[in-house]
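Q: Entry one of two.
A:
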Amino acid sequence: MKHILFIALLLLSINGTSQNNFNSEGMTVTKSDLDLNLYERDSSANALVIYEKGNSYVDKNRFTLKTEVSKKIKILNSKGFDNAVINIYLYHKDKKREKIHNISATTFNLENNTVTKTLLESDDIFEKKINDSFTNVTFTFPNVKEGSVITLSYVLESPFMFKYKEWYFQEDIPKLYSEYRASIPGNYEYNIKLVGYLKLDSHDVKIESNCLEFGSKGWADCANYVYAMTNIPAFIEEDYMTTKLNYLARVEYELKTFKGMNGNIEHYTKTWKTVDSEIKSDKNIGKQLNRNNIAKDLLSEKILTEKDALKKAKDIYTYVQDTYTWNEKFNIYDDISVKDLIDNKSGNVSEINILLHNLLEEQGFETNAVLLSTRNNGFVTKIHPVLSDFNYLIVQIVIEGKTYLLDATDKYNSFGELPFRCLNQEGRLLDFKNGSSWIDISPEKTYSIMYRNDLTLNESGILEGSVERRSNGYKAAPLKKLYFENKDAYINTLNEKHQSIEISDYSSTIQNKSDFEFVESFDVSQEIEMIGDNLYLNPFVFSFFTENFFKLQERTYPIDFGYKDSFMYVLKLTIDNSYEVLEEPKALTLRLPDNKGSIIFTSTIENNVMTIFFKLSFNDALYPPEYYSAMKEFMNNAVDIQKNSLLVLKKK
């Protein structure tokens, strides 16, 4: 009896465990799917994809690309209701268009311990043309509540084999299981790209013989791919990243070659040698880069006769920067006219920087144009040319063996400093003589911001003295912009941001918007409150971080600052002799793994003078995801030092 009872209890335990798991093995909705309202791996999740599957193949009769999609989603709470609103975009070009068939959408609820189903009616499916290329099919699941499970299936049909269906394993909600199958006929050759930092749990490919027949013309084998991922975390955007399209885990296809049954081969992916030749003869880039003999009509005699090469280059850069205004359009493949820029004094990125290139080249400088993709546009494909990946053009110049990258669109950038939007790792240097090549566009310098404080705490508990703030490069750019747009408003904002401090006698030595360094000086006064018999003073009158900007449980993509930077705070505090020091801040030194960053914090008191030194350094611009937990803890300490370091004093 004891053995029977033990086995019975064990079976109940196993059954209970199974009932507390979501069914991630198929589209069947189980009672556990409806009962559970919390995803343990991510308690902050509002919805969860329990199971999804995609299957793309070429229809044997119509020779169109079909993709069957099925998906099962758990709505964990009311904030997850957005996942019950479905938008499917259909591509169309000329007379060809994608179509959608067999839409099925069902809402499952558990009511009085009974499973109920509510089906989507066809009249509740809406179609709207977005533009000349896309139509939106949209609908909302009926009767959705907290705890609902919704199931969706449909078939996409596309005549565009060059647009083989991509598959996103990762979205903004977590997933338990995602599978994608792709059957690719042998006469179509694609570049297959796996994007993101997540690893596949399974990846298999098998050859299927004679999967397609083309009548008497021939037949084709198919490569059948199967990809799967499990326990996929939600993609949540956080500070210090480029566009999320760089990191969302997915598989993409780009048609490389098509082999016709008549033996003809059509190449869709080109070589860089071919692309270089096309760009050279292109009217919008190549032809514009060869517009010469314009310097004498634009540049002053002083610039033309300058003997110092670096100064001359800087003067030409400043001329373009100050004379021509960016219209905030990028344009690198069409509508480029240097002549229109000269006439209108306003133009797109390519026009301004091509003019800069031509003026420098005409004066004998070694210059080349560089194509790149901005941070918001995404990374470029490097294994083969994809010109649509690029959306920006800058200039490279070499002076006495030193290389500078230039962009004259931003009036606040100094010579050799690209706008922050450009800091996206690499660019393609266009050299029509020797062939194009990849170059690193990451800045080598470390950019910094520093406070230097010389303060006194008097007998009345008033903290006063002078402050100097020095910032440079990318740290200075946003401050300079606000300063030059409205100096009075800038000073008022400084006061509003630090309401407990009285700021006076503000001054700055900066002369030009493009100056590399921005130095500001001002006086401060602050009354330090007594609590009981003690006075508590935080020596960080100004802080760099009020909170940790890294908050995720897990980050599956890199931390991308764009550049190396540092933060420094120096304080000399003279304390009135009427005070006795009870407690002073504790020194601390921390380092990131592999010495990729450090915090140095020291505090000393001698002869009633306290000296504080704080320096936080990021030695890299880019940190892989595996550094995230260390970086998060690192920043927790940085914030804690600034918020909770206290000097405790008592009147003698």
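Q: Entry two of two.
A:
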Amino acid sequence: MEGWPFIPQRGIKEKYEWLTEVIRTKSSEQRISLRPVPRVKIEQTFQLRGPEGYAASELAKQYGKTGEMIIPLWSDLLPLSNLSQGAVSLSVGFDDARFIEGQYVYIIGLDNRFEFKQIETLTNNSIYLTSALEMSYGECHVVPALTGLMSSDWSMTKRSDLYLIGKCEFYISQEIPNSPANPFPSYLGLTVLTSRPILEGSKTDKHRREAIEFDSVAGPISYQTEYADPISDGTIMWSLDTRQQIKELRNWFYVLKGKMTSFYMPRWVNEFQASRPISSGTAYVYIERNPALDHTYVGPVCIVKRDGSLVFAEIQMISNVNEDEDSLLMTTTFNDTIPLNDIEMVCKLVEMRLNTDTIEFSYTESNGADVKASVIEVT
């Protein structure tokens, strides 16, 4: 089987595409997972010289969207050295790289000599090949490679410096083994997304009440409420630095299965300004009274401490204490005293879900990745 040997030099994007049908009613929604295992697509951009561009174009014309090729997973690139011609095994620390028995490994030297080899078995930190290496290598790299197809046309642009910029998306037809795992804590039966976007990326919120517009052209515009509850949606972003962080977040997305599974997420806004220390053995949190808002919220909250730790609690009632303070009565008592100066914020824990079935990892030159996902409140 032919391999795609060209090295992307201008960015790699991995896309995970689930499929969920969301059925909304006036006051709730039902979600049905239609594709519990995602399709994986990899978008790559290449900077090629003339002969390389010619070879890439010929491969694209030969295989197109119908012929399987071997596609390297460049995001899992690993360094290696001193490989001998005739060797049938590679000693390499996997470092979470996605090698799969029966699939392939791509070996490429610093002088651009390369070969694709099929993997027979994986044991400890060794890769055993079905056939011996045809060349010897000094300093080189090994990359897991999987069977796939071109899922887009191959496009190439000639620049004034005579380099060719090629771009293509590949569909990985081989299912990538993954271990869905939840790296976050749970509260009241749901995962709590404790990644703090304001430190690890960014977060944007939008709040609205959906309505149907009636426009009589000449007369006034009127609106009718479409759903019983207002919704909040937005975008969260992560900037990940290590392969381990990427793996953990990817495994969590496998748990969510796109739009299917909901989770709690702190608002990360100081919605309830604490006015007193929180005493152990009590169920009260005292907050500054907000004259612009009559608090009616009942539900889970997150107390964010200045050392970064989080305390989860559930409000069962809000009462007025005096003209300056309200009290939040929780369903359980606090185990520890929290000094007022240690409380950074008290915010709602909101039940959310992904508002997209496609998650994209945009890999950086430093082996990290940026991830963006739209989210929406579950009503």
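A: Comment on entry two: Residues 190-261+355-377 form one domain. Helices lie at 50-63, 197-200, 243-256.
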